[in-house]
Amino acid sequence: MIERLAIEGYRSIRSLVVDLAPLTVVTGPNGSGKSSLYRALRLLADCGEGRVIASLAAVGGLEAVRWAGPEHGTRRGQATEGTVRRGPVALRLGVATDALGYAIDLGIPVAQRSAFDRDPEIKQEHVFAGALPRPGGVLIERKRGVARASTDAGWMELSRGMHPWASVLDELAGHAEAAELAGARRMLRGWRFHDALRTDATAPARQPQVATRAARLDDDGANLAAVLQTAIEMGWERELERAIDDAFPGSRLRLPVVDGRMQVALEQPGMLRPLAAPELSDGTLQYLLLTAAMLSAEKPGLIVLNEPERSLHADLVPALAARIRDAAAATQVVVVTHQATLAEALGGARIELEKRGGETVVAGREGLLDQPAWHWPTR
Length: 379
Fold this sequence. Notes:
This protein has two domains: about 5-190 and about 350-370, no CATH class; about 200-300, no CATH class. The chain contains nine helices and 20 strands. Helix 6 packs across helix 7 (about 280-295), helix 7 (about 280-295) packs parallel to helix 8 (about 315-330) and helix 8 (about 315-330) packs across helix 9 (about 340-345). The strands form four sheets. It has an eight-stranded antiparallel β-sheet, covered by helices on one side. It has helices at about 35-50, 50-60, 60-65, 170, 180-190, 225-245, 280-295, 315-330, 340-345; strands at about 5-10, 15-20, 25, 90-95, 100-105, 120-130, 140-145, 145-150, 155-160, 190-195, 210, 250-255, 255-260, 260, 265, 275, 300-305, 330-335, 350-355, 360. The chain is of the alpha+beta class. A hairpin with a 7-residue loop joins strand 15 and strand 16.
């Protein structure tokens, strides 16, 4: 389970460290920084896939996403004023379980002429034991182009001259002397994100799809019917029936297959025929998509839901909360929402964000000393 998340220098987040529970609900008013926390988690997942540089370049590079306020923040009650920066521009992301953690430090490229001037550089990466990246717990260290591993006999060099856009998780995960890299990459790759699943008239989930087993829901929801049928054949038919009846009492899910293609349909009381996917309301389809994400045969290490209540009628919120709570019994879940009703129905640990002097902070905290411990390695 992910126990601690650390973010520094990203959008409205100057420095934030939070602890995560089996079920964590991130709340706060619009503009408080919920989306920044969600996107930071996605960037960490991108590190595991070897695409964090490309993801940052796609949104304008480090200059477009770095912390825009004063280097040391704004004191309460004082106006924000520009100052001369003394430290380097840095975007730092870190995550830790009780056994293994990963931290990355991204910065501005060394001045050079290149067509890829939106690509930031990876300045440092660390894989460490325990919940904090302290010097004594570092297992793998990458600084600039040099990567090395800590062994019983001391530091052993793994690589020299690594490209500034290449991560040790991608380049060296198979190294015989660095098994921890494979563990860190596997952890990050095991996260699943569901954000604004499509429910419009041309949404893939409304179209017939090839009938083939599916262990996880596609990002666009195209394999909705296959995921639900796979869950049924894996023995979770009763759970799915309960999910449908909680939301639509008396209704029954149908997954007809015609010429090797399948589609979602819903039998409802008083209707002479099932309603096919193109006929379902946006809210009904959204609920079915989220149910599929929670009941998928694959049990990821972490599921992150960003505003799952969108398109849902208030009557469906209790049923959605029940699906999320059930999923959290087997999979760690983080829910980002601004709807108080959903947050209350979910229970779990609560992280309430607010803006203070333009900076995203956890409500109730007095300052950086009033947050979980974290140690960023110096460059």
